[in-house]
Amino acid sequence: MTEDVKITQGSLEWFHMIGGILAHAARSANLPTDINLTFVERYTDGAEIDDGLVQGIRLDFRKGEPSYRVGVGRAERGDVTVEVTSHAARILNLHLSGDPTYKALLNRYQADGDRKAEGDLSRLGDWLNETHDPIVLRTK
Predict the structure, then answer these.
(1) How far is CA 27 from CA 21, 71, 117, 131, 133, in A?
(2) What DSSP designation does 114 have?
(3) How big is the CA angle at 137 (ends 81 and 100), to the nearest 5 degrees?
(4) How far, in Å, CA of 122 to CA of 138, rounded?
(5) What does DSSP assign to residue 54?
(6) Alpha carbon of 48 to those of 7, 87, 120, 135: distances in Å?
(7) C-alpha 140: how far from chain center
(8) 48-50/53-62 β-pairing
(9) Angle of CA points 110, 84, 34, to nearest 5°
(10) Taking a C-beta distance cutoff of 8 angstroms, is the pair 124, 36 a contact?
């Protein structure tokens, strides 16, 4: 998929695009083969998309190898869990990571509870932060 093809945020196709970007970035990061963890990100007000699953993504690492599933349970948790309102996600995905507005909004949404992160994100390494901009560039 090229960067000039934009996909509607929140659609199944969009979550699959995110899964592909995350899995590719994780593989490129040459993660240690002993990493075994689960990352879950869900819209707290997400629509049901399939069989009780709501808008979100689950990224599993087994022996350092990533795989993903689109859709997560409303109460599903991972070793790292990010919960965000669809509104906050939409606004954040309008700004590249180097934009001071992005950082200010991220801080505000975390302070207001519109975005919550549990678990040790540093276990995933820096590659995760580097996926924001490619996602923004492919989002409409």
Answers:
(1) 10, 22, 23, 12, 18
(2) S
(3) 70
(4) 25
(5) E
(6) 19, 16, 28, 22
(7) 16
(8) antiparallel
(9) 90
(10) no
User: Could you state, in chain order, the average pLDDT of each consecutive group of 10 residues for the chain (140 residues)?
Assistant: 79 96 93 91 94 95 94 96 97 96 97 96 85 96
Q: What are the E-state strand segments in the chain? A: 37-43, 48-50, 53-62, 65-72, 80-84, 115-118
CA 127 to chain centroid, in Å, comes to 12
**92 contact partners, CB below 8 Å, separation of at least 6:** 84, 102, 105, 106, 109, 115
Q: What is the pTM of this model?
A: 0.91
DSSP state of 76: -
Structure tokens, 107: 């801080």
Cα(77)–Cα(83) distance, integer angstroms? 10
